[in-house]
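Lab notebook, bench 4. Still working through the backlog of constructs that have no structural model yet. Next entry is a single chain of 143 residues. Request: give me the structure tokens for it.
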Amino acid sequence: MPGRLKALRRKIFARHSSPWSAWTRLLSAPLVLVPVWTRRWSHAAGVAAWMLANPVIFPPPADDRSFATKAILGEEMWIERRPKDTAMAVNMAASAAGVAAAIAARKRRALPATAATATQIALLLVYWRMMNEYYEKHRDSAD
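Model written out:
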């Protein structure tokens, strides 16, 4: 990855590793369904603005003791190395649950949309645990 792009990614992840950023972003997953359900561009613009701003509006954490901080920093390291491991499968399953939620929202089926979103968040928490462990294992060898 070119140096400038890597430095930009590092700055974004440094702020996104704030527990406030990480947790509010995770719990914002249902917001993505609002514009799909309502079919309003104004809702899509608001949700998009929040999702773009969230990783950079919070200050970097003071330390890496938080579970969420370790998960996000682990994800940054994992993205750089991109190992084909169980975490990739869990992340893909979470993405598939998100797509299923969007399809259900498009059809205005509340129960399936809710179930798929809950599944997505649960899988993301499993992924976070994996990223937390990845961070703990590899933080001393970070570039």
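Notes after review: The mean pLDDT is 94. Residues 3-141 form one domain. Flag for follow-up if needed.
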